[in-house]
Design a protein that fits this description.
Order of helices and strands: HHHHHHHHHHHHHHHHHH
Number of helices: 18
Number of strands: 0
Radius of gyration: 23 Å
Structural class: mainly alpha
Helix content: over 70%
Length: 342
């Protein structure tokens, strides 16, 4: 580093950006910002005729935007990353826009902008596929999984989460594997597979520790809620036993265990994961405060069918009123899907 500072060459500037990535993934955002600032300053001193400045500034904005999202500021991250995407999208390295697009999609998802998030994911998929970027496709699958879960399609979300695991493993993306394992753990909890969820959370936590990969603040709330719910359902002793078992699993063992759990899991009898696709459509429309006749017209079914769906929904979710159901649908971010017939 000392020698690099004296020469101020492109290798030194690039190393500063790589160090900022490492610091970010370790959770040291202050150090990451300092490395970024030094890299930009060095590139500016190299002069506008240098290739460094044209590459460093977009890369610096990219990492800053990721830090903003990681720090739970999705609105600011969206603004920063949109600029980065526009720059890279119009360059000769357009396929690399797929990476900031993923984070941009996550930021939109965090703000409840599901359509925007889906559009960014679609673009990231196209760019990554054209560039044969398997590790990026794994991360794309994870964001698609989260989108499906927000829409109440937990089975589809689970399938995509396992696709993310498979692609991450194929690409050797160890950080992506940790993120995908934690998503599988959260989805298992949503489907009342509490012991499985606990073991996977523990396995992912052990992998994080071994890699030195910090959990970002934006991820902490969902993780704590999932783990707390599993602990309450299992009881302290069973939870502790499942956690100890999961903590011993290697990455390959955790992936194999997750695959077995998926194969064994069936739709539960109660809870959100127990709702059928038709019932979920009714929930989404109740969330829009539509009446039974309006829902029937929208879904091309009879009013009696809507009433039957609602009876089943209230029973499965343990709710007593449409207002409670609408509130829960809003809390989960469930939105109506288009339902036109050909």
């Amino acid at each position: 580093m000392a020698g690099g500072r004296r020469t101020n060459d492109s290798n030194f500037i690039g190393s500063l950006l790589y160090l900022s990535w490492v610091a970010m993934f370790r959770g040291d955002f202050q150090a990451a910002r300092e490395y970024i600032a030094e890299a930009v300053d060095a590139a500016q001193k190299a002069g506008s005729d240098s290739r460094s400045i044209t590459l460093v500034e977009p890369a610096a904005k990219w990492i800053r935007g990721w830090i903003e999202f990681a720090s739970s500021d999705p609105a600011q991250a969206s603004q920063s990353l949109a600029v980065v995407v526009a720059i890279i999208r119009s360059s000769m390295l357009a396929r690399y826009a797929s990476v900031p697009l993923i984070v941009l999609a996550q930021a939109q998802l965090a703000m409840g902008e599901l359509d925007e998030a889906a559009a960014f994911v679609d673009e990231a998929t196209s760019l990554a596929s054209a560039g044969a970027m398997t590790w990026v496709l794994g991360r794309v699958a994870r964001v698609r999984s989260e989108l499906s879960a927000r829409k109440g399609d937990f089975q589809g979300a689970a399938s995509l989460a396992h696709e993310a695991l498979s692609l991450g493993r194929e690409a050797g993306d160890q950080l992506g594997l940790v993120d995908a394992l934690e998503l599988v753990a959260r989805l298992a909890r949503e489907q009342d597979s509490n012991a499985e969820s606990t073991r996977l959370w523990a396995a992912a936590g052990s992998l994080r520790t071994r890699l030195g990969y910090a959990r970002f603040p934006v991820e902490q709330g969902p993780r704590e809620a999932s783990v707390a719910a599993a602990k309450e359902a299992l009881g302290a002793d069973d939870f502790a036993a499942a956690w100890a078992e999961g903590a011993k699993l290697s990455a390959d063992e955790a992936i194999a265990y997750a695959a077995r759990g998926r194969g064994e899991r069936k739709r539960p009898a109660a809870g959100w994961a127990s709702l059928t696709p038709g019932e979920l459509q009714v929930v989404r429309l109740v969330g829009q405060h539509l009446s039974n006749p309006e829902i029937a017209a929208r879904l091309f079914v009879s009013r009696a069918t809507v009433k039957t769906h609602l009876v089943h929904i209230f029973s499965k979710l343990g709710l007593d009123s449409r207002s409670e159901l609408a509130a829960e649908a809003a809390r989960r971010g469930l939105q109506p899907q288009s339902n036109t017939r050909p």
